[in-house]
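Risk register update: the risk of archive-format incompatibility is retired. Evidence:
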Amino acid sequence: MDVKTVFDIVESGVKTEIIIGASWTYWKFVIQRASEPATNLDIDVKFVGKQDSKWIIEITATLENKSQARLEYKDLQITARYFLAGDKIEDGGPQIKYQLNAPRSIDERIGGKERFFVTPPYINPTQLFRHRYVTYISGDATFVWIQTKLSIHPKGGWQKVNAQRIFRASE
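Archived output:
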């Protein structure tokens, strides 16, 4: 076998590897969007018990990074609204898109200031992180409505993500 034949075989192999590599890159980052963050935000509440006529509750916000890229995030805010047995059930206004009106909030106790989970600045690829917040609501509460929102930083700047769930107060 002469040198030219060997060179032609190597050159052909390199071209094949470049085509395969380019195809894989296109598939992974354009078709599957593997470099873009994909998140799942879920909420849970544990009614720990009653003391001093109040429910002690543990709120868990679970953030899951389902992508192959590190996800930067900040400002994981929590709002806990609740109902008492005598509260009317009615629609809210246009500012809350006519969802259930729940005027009672744990934020009333701190002058309407916002509450935040303590968070790290990022979550690694495929990682799941549980943020916990312990607080209390009235012992006469019948339901608690948890709302969370945070800012994530995918390509193109900060974006808001939110989640909400309602729970029946129970022992």
